[in-house]
Amino acid sequence: MVDPSSKPDRPPLGPVSLTLRLGAIALVVAVAAGALAYVHGSLDPGRLTPKALVDVLETNNGVHPGYRRNHAKGVCVIGYFESSGEARAYSTAQVFNEARTPVVGRFALPSGNPYAPDSSVPIRSLALRFLQANGQQWRTGMNSMPVFPVGTPEAFYQLQQAGSPDPATGKPDPSKVPAFFASHPEATPFLQWVKGAKPSASYASESYNGINAFYLVDGSGKRQAVRWGVVPETRDGPDAGSAPQGADYLEQDLVRRLAQGPLRWRLQITLAAPGDPTDDASKAWPAQRPVINAGTLVLQSTQAQNSGECRDINYDPLILPSGIQASDDPLLAARSAAYASSYLRRTSEVSQLPGAQEPRP
């Protein structure tokens, strides 16, 4: 892992250090898609099931009753979305056509350990639920990395298996993760990003990428393939991004910043061109693709994750309003299935959460 006290001009990681770092990241690499498995996979013994995927996450991270099996450590945020109107030409979704839409979100770390130090991984995540006036919802999960390491649920499961503890030693076999990446060249863009990534000092300074493709649908039924993400309106200076010492600085920093006023991100939607892959989250689209500013995400306050509004929300990426449709990316159906499996486990354990209140109706 990156040393939180390291300086920006530190020398590049050597082969041994890089291997160790990749091995550690493999244990928490469930970032953009979280737990993955095929929808209805339990009907076919030969296919990957939601249970198998959630089980391997528990094997790698331990079981922490009441917490999400991935992205377990986080904080609830409350705010709203202000539409700019620029997405109206592409989608009938009310979120793009109304002036303001309430939002309940959650910042988190990509790990199944709710007690992991904030500096343990260089990735941060942001999940959002937009509640439209017509009752429809849009839920999305985004991460601070640009691409997913692999493009299929099976490959993700194999990566998790490569990072699982050996029953004989209680520790992962250090040769398995490098061997996995050597046999999966599609992971090269992700690995290139990892080499230069380091834990940031603030959720507020990060951009978050949706990674998976979706379709915006206009009033005539025309579909436009897109990917979305949010970009902070105010960025920290170049010397303010390194993670400080300490286990829980991200939530403390967020509370401090919000006490000074709301935080804002621009919702940027990238428009695909014909031929851009919509079924593979490990592949980036060309940088010159058109980008529209769909509006501004405004976050106003935080809530403790064990009792806040975000606790009982399953940020299923296939909960979409009219005007937004899923693409053919297999990770989307996989995420939906395994999120449901994890949700059922953790909501049956809510009473074991520290500081938890009764489940909401």
From TrEMBL:
TM ranges: 20-39
Record-given protein name: Catalase-related peroxidase
Record-annotated active site: H71
Single biological process term from Gene Ontology: response to hydrogen peroxide
Highest taxon listed in the record's lineage: Bacteria
Keywords, alphabetical: Heme, Iron, Membrane, Metal-binding, Oxidoreductase, Peroxidase, Transmembrane, Transmembrane helix
Documented EC number(s): 1.11.1.-
Named cofactor requirement(s): heme
Organism (species): Pseudomonas protegens (strain DSM 19095 / LMG 27888 / CFBP 6595 / CHA0)
Any Gene Ontology CC annotation: cytoplasm
Function: Has an organic peroxide-dependent peroxidase activity.
Family membership noted in the UniProt record: Belongs to the catalase family.
Pfam family, one: Catalase
Catalase core domain residues: 30-361
CDD domains recorded: srpA_like (cd08153)
